[in-house]
Amino acid sequence: MLKESDFHPEHLADLRESGINDDTIDLMGLHSVRPQDIPKELGWNPQRVESALAFPYPGLDFTRFKVFPAFRDKDGHKIKYLQKKNTGCHLYTLPPVRDALANPSAPLRFVEGEKKAARGVQEGLNCVGIGGLWNWVDGETGESIVEIDGIAWVNRPVEIIPDSDVWTRPDLQRAVTALMRELEGKGAKVLVVVIPQEGKEKIGLDDYLLNFGITKFPGLDRIGLKHPTFHQHAKWWRAWKAERERKQLEASLSKEISVAKDMGQEERHEATALLRRKDLLLKFLEDTEHLGCVGEEDNKTALYLAFTSRLLGRPISINIKGESSGGKNFLVQGVGRFFPPESVQFISSATPKALFYLPEDLSHKVVVIAEMLGGQDADYSIRTFQSEGEIVILVPEKDKGTGRIETKERRVKGPAAFIQTTTRTHLHQENETRSFDLFVDESERQTEMIFKAQN
Fold this sequence. Notes:
Blueprint lengths: L8 H9 L4 H7 L2 E3 L4 H5 L8 E6 L6 E10 L5 E5 L12 H4 L9 E5 L1 H9 L4 E4 L15 H4 L7 E5 L8 H16 L3 E5 L11 H8 L9 E2 L4 H4 L2 H26 L5 H11 L4 H11 L6 H12 L9 E4 L6 H9 L7 E4 L17 E5 L6 H13 L1 E9 L6 E9 L2 E7 L6 H4 L3 E4 L4 H11 L1
Helix pairs in contact: 5-8, 13-14
């Protein structure tokens, strides 16, 4: 039951302007922050802010605050919402929406802000709030934030509902383009809802629902990536994505070098210089020859890139195919020697449940499975790991304290690159779509080269 005395009058009036009723306010768990408590709640003291309305994020230790009056930064920009420093971006999902995240047949709508999300939920829409059109990108990694990866996207209908000013601002259109491509890349079917604007004031979902109600909402125009409005930004998006991946890779490589054990300053300098060589792949191929892994230049290059891709948000997976004793495992091991041992998990064979009992954190590692048995359960585990970035299993375990059998969750985190060797010409068809196939060179010339190297 809402108690108006618990809220600053200006805060309640602001919520009413968006058409949010008492039941929704209770569902949101909002509260007004006393002026003297604002520095404690935020961890810093925003000058000239007189009051704040707290928006706690359900299921997360995170809160955003709408401040009154709006805060002005050192450049004079007006900022309506503040949060603790270094707390990142998160998705605002009220309980009815959280319950639907695992169901890919349930439509989702992305809107700008908590109030718009709450207003949509009030009308029966599964609305997810983002603080801004770019507030789905992790500032440190450049990848999508963790909450996005926890949603089932396969063929899920998704609508993005930006404020009406997006149609006159190319910078905002680019942000929407990037979000659309990110979600479509995860398997969703994405459209953008066009909210019309009359006059100079922009209109958000809450304003539209307040003026027209939910009955007219289905009749609004919806457009996809092929529409000229977004298609014009395709070249920009490709450049943005390439730069994003370049920064991710550079940051990951720098991190690996900085944490390397027993490496002095001179060795770090030498390693960094090597990684930045323009002929790095040629140098790699030359060194593999010296170590006895002859020929197979194309396969070795592809494997090198796959091993390196473990550092990215979406690593490359490869199936090495060939006859028994054809050199598949020797090829993989020859390339694997050029990478830190702690970043590669070698498995001699995989039983159906093997992956669930690997170390709990395989983030940015390479899982090498030699002579893949190809059982149906193992295939399913691998493709789930490749698509979702982790696998989860519920297992019965005996509690050491009580002796009772309890069901516990075992979670293996990713993402990880998968390298499999097999004598089979075909694996499960869905696994095949998630990996590149390489075939070992079994020619007479390659055999002669191997004998020569052995001699």
